[in-house]
């Protein structure tokens, strides 16, 4: 149970000083996960040091490290299977390489084959990444073994024993922490929502067309992508959890946060009608202030979840989120007066969602109401299976996964052969490891890893130089699991830290296996630099430029928007589940375009996709999402007034118009222009609170006008990509340029 605490109102300042004070406690999930990984490796090290000799103990620790790669703060049932799979693959690789060690040249094709298979595992998505890296790390640990380590079968058996021992530790820690991981995933989702609110507030205050505006837009896109990841991680943990009062409450909070994201998306609408004069700037600042207050509320809730402390739900005091907007002075007859009630209404709904989240945190667990059943919620969980069809679909020279697998196998084999020819040959596996961790599926990721890897290696070598002066084998052995846990914790958060801690781990591992070899600091630095250069060079071999997959992404986005529009404009309780599923697919599709644009910024200018056309498509797609969110909100609150024949007919007409403009064979000419209905003079004279139907009618007209704009932007992008064939959905996987 959460412990109640005295209320401190986050609305005291939109900058969130209360949230700043409350974010200090409790480690986030990645640190807690790194702590348990270090503890598990340390337990295996301690156990086998007492049961076997020095070399056997280090072999067992190597098996534990293989298994630990897949130990993540995810659902318990998924985690133990992944840990077991990573350990098994690492041990199997160690056995094969152990058999081939007497023939160094024979290791080159083996390393190439292992690299190819590991990269092809990404056919099942990012969740396969930690498991697929276990064979790569096994190459390093197996080749690091001294010649007297024993027969391959014996060494692999000690690896397996260590992996199984680690699996037992992982299961024990996972069982104890599963509730905590769920709360931390929810806290991370709320924190990401708060950051998106603040980035939207920054975008409102940035002068249009300036560098600050461009930076705010980039931040907004990055925060959107991060929020999507956090929401999916929380869904995976909560929606498959047992149906308990605590889980129901946390599920209800997550659903509120997802709905809040919809209203936040709609907050961008009509803002360009405010103008850039002094009253317009004041209104923008007032909107930004309102978003900041809601963000502070969510940051307060995030901190409460991290501390396992319940905020007092009843002590919030008076709330007037639209007071800043109402204080803006406008001249009588200023048409922007018509817009004020609508803008205020959005802030009120955002604030109401944040207040419901706070009430759920502070209330009784058994009072939470979840609108979907557990079976329905499981439809939103990421897939867990490993269907062979996913692998077969990537066995094509056009597939980015296949091309990266070929690139990886060639790079690893080349790194190993080059290492054999270098003046220093005692640690050829370090060059292989450097290439493996730097070479990524895209040039943007490779460049990021390259820089972090080099700097992290320098820092790690400096740390090892300091540790070497201690001359304490026991202390060095105890530091090994700590550095392994730190490297594990930050691999997806801050790779620079992982690179530094990984360097410490690698140097200590080689030293603990063969203390007489000392610390090969210079060799480690040289191999890292050379490996980073090799990975950078091989990133241009069979490259998978973003433009190759863009036609398929564009068609998938059009289909997702079309389906979301169809379900959003339906009236009836039965449409709620389909609407939520379609909404997630639409967000994911637009997120794919945004991510591709970000990655393509690092590619050579001659192969970049058409930035202008894709940005226009992304902008119009997000606008349509915002319009549909507003329509759904109006339908939810309009009651019988929006069930009239006139309203239902307008909904049907808009649905047909969007189906036609976004369909495989658009019937409406695409103009790419902003609809006339955005003009201030055409805003309804009556505020939404008095007569909602005119506002719904206007919103439907504007949403319908976005369809041709989206289709026009899509056609322009496809034409620029050299793929100007009809926009169909069944040919997504073929014919990439």
Note down, in words, how this protein is organized.
The chain has helices at 17-22, 29-51, 54-68, 76-100, 107-120, 129-143, 152-205, 211-238, 245-266, 278-307, 323-326, 340-362, 374-377, 388-392, 400-421, 428-438, 443-468, 473-489, 495-513, 521-538, 546-568, 575-600, 611-638, 645-662, 693-720, and strands at residues 3-5, 309-311. The chain has 737 residues and is mainly alpha-helical. Among the domains are: 178-314 and 342-369, no CATH class; 399-544, no CATH class; 547-676 and 689-720. Strands 1-2 form a two-stranded parallel sheet. Helix 2 (29-51) packs antiparallel against helix 3 (54-68). The model is unreliable at 1-24, 313-318, 668-678 and 723-737 (pLDDT under 50).
What attributes does this structure have?
two-stranded parallel sheet; mainly alpha; single chain; 25 helices; 2 strands; disordered C terminus; 68% helix; 737 residues; elongated; disordered N terminus
Give a quick rundown of the structure.
The protein is built from 25 helices and 2 strands.
Write the layout of secondary structure elements.
Elements: E1 3-5, H1 17-22, H2 29-51, H3 54-68, H4 76-100, H5 107-120, H6 129-143, H7 152-205, H8 211-238, H9 245-266, H10 278-307, E2 309-311, H11 323-326, H12 340-362, H13 374-377, H14 388-392, H15 400-421, H16 428-438, H17 443-468, H18 473-489, H19 495-513, H20 521-538, H21 546-568, H22 575-600, H23 611-638, H24 645-662, H25 693-720
Helix pairs in contact: 2-3, 2-7, 2-18, 3-4, 3-6, 3-7, 4-6, 4-7, 5-6, 5-15, 6-16, 7-8, 7-9, 7-10, 8-9, 8-22, 9-12, 9-23, 10-12, 15-16, 15-20, 16-20, 17-19, 17-20, 18-19, 21-22, 21-23, 21-24, 21-25, 22-23, 23-25, 24-25
């Amino acid at each position: 149970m959460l412990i109640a605490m005295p209320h401190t109102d986050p609305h005291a300042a939109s900058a969130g000083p209360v949230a700043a004070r409350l974010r200090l406690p409790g480690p986030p999930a990645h640190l807690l996960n790194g702590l348990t990984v270090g503890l598990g490796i340390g337990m295996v090290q301690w156990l086998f040091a007492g049961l076997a000799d020095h070399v056997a103990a280090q072999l067992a620790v190597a098996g534990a490290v293989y298994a630990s790669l897949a130990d993540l703060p995810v659902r318990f049932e998924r985690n133990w299977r992944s840990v077991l799979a990573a350990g098994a693959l690492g041990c199997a690789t160690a056995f094969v390489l152990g058999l081939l060690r007497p023939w160094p040249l024979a290791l080159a094709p083996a390393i190439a084959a292992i690299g190819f298979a590991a990269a092809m595992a990404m056919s099942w998505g990012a969740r396969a990444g930690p498991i697929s890296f276990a064979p790569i790390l096994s190459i390093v640990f197996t080749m690091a073994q001294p010649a007297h380590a024993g027969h391959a079968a014996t060494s692999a058996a000690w690896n397996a024993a260590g992996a199984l021992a680690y699996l037992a530790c992982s299961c024990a820690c996972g069982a104890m922490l599963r509730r905590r991981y769920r709360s931390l995933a929810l806290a991370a989702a709320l924190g990401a929502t708060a950051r998106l609110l603040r980035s939207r507030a920054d975008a409102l205050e940035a002068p249009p067309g300036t560098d600050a505006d461009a930076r705010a837009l980039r931040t907004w896109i990055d925060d959107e992508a991060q929020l999507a990841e956090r929401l999916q991680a929380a869904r995976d943990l909560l929606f498959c959890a047992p149906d308990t009062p605590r889980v129901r409450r946390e599920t209800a909070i997550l659903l509120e946060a997802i709905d809040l994201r919809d209203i936040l998306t709609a907050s961008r609408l009509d803002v360009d009608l405010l103008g850039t004069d002094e009253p317009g700037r004041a209104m923008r600042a007032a909107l930004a202030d309102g978003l900041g207050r809601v963000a502070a509320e969510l940051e307060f809730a995030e901190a409460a979840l991290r501390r396992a402390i319940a905020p007092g739900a009843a002590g919030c005091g008076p709330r007037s989120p639209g007071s800043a907007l109402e204080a803006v002075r406008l001249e009588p007859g200023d048409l922007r007066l018509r817009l004020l009630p609508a803008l205020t209404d959005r802030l009120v709904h955002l604030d109401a969602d944040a207040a419901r989240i706070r009430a759920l945190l502070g209330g009784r667990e058994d009072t939470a109401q979840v609108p979907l059943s557990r079976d329905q919620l499981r439809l939103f969980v990421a897939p867990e299976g490993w269907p062979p069809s996913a692998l077969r679909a990537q066995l094509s020279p056009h597939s980015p996964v296949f091309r990266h697998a070929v690139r990886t196998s060639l790079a690893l084999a080349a790194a190993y052969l080059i290492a054999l020819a270098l003046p220093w040959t005692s640690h050829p596996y370090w060059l292989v490891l450097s290439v493996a961790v730097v070479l990524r599926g895209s040039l943007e990721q490779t460049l990021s890893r390259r820089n972090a890897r080099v700097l992290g290696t320098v820092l790690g070598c400096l740390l090892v130089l300091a540790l070497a002066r201690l001359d304490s084998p026991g202390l060095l052995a105890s530091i090994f699991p700590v550095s392994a846990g730190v490297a594990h914790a930050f691999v997806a958060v801050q790779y620079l830290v992982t690179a530094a801690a990984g360097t410490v781990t690698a140097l200590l591992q080689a030293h603990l296996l063969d203390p007489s070899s000392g610390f090969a600091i210079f060799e480690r630095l040289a191999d890292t630099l050379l490996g980073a250069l090799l990975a950078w060079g091989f990133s241009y071999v069979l490259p998978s430029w973003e433009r190759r997959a863009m036609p398929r992404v564009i068609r998938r986005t059009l289909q997702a928007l079309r389906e979301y529009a169809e379900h959003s404009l339906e009236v009836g309780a039965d449409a709620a589940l389909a609407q939520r599923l379609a909404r997630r697919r639409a967000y994911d599709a637009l997120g794919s375009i945004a991510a591709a644009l970000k990655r393509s910024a690092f590619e050579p200018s001659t192969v970049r996709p058409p930035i202008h056309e894709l940005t226009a498509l992304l902008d119009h797609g997000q606008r349509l999402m915002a319009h549909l969110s507003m329509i759904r909100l109006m339908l939810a609150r309009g009651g019988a007034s929006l069930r009239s024949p006139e309203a239902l007919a307008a909904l049907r007409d808009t649905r047909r118009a969007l189906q036609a403009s976004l369909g495989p064979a658009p019937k409406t000419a695409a103009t790419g222009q902003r609809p006339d209905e955005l003009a201030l003079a055409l805003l309804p004279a009556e505020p939404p609170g008095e007569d909602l139907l005119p506002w719904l009618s206007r919103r439907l007209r504007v949403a319908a006008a976005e369809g041709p704009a989206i289709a026009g932007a899509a056609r322009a992008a496809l034409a620029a990509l050299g793929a100007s064939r009809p926009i169909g959905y069944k040919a997504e996987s073929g014919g990439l340029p």
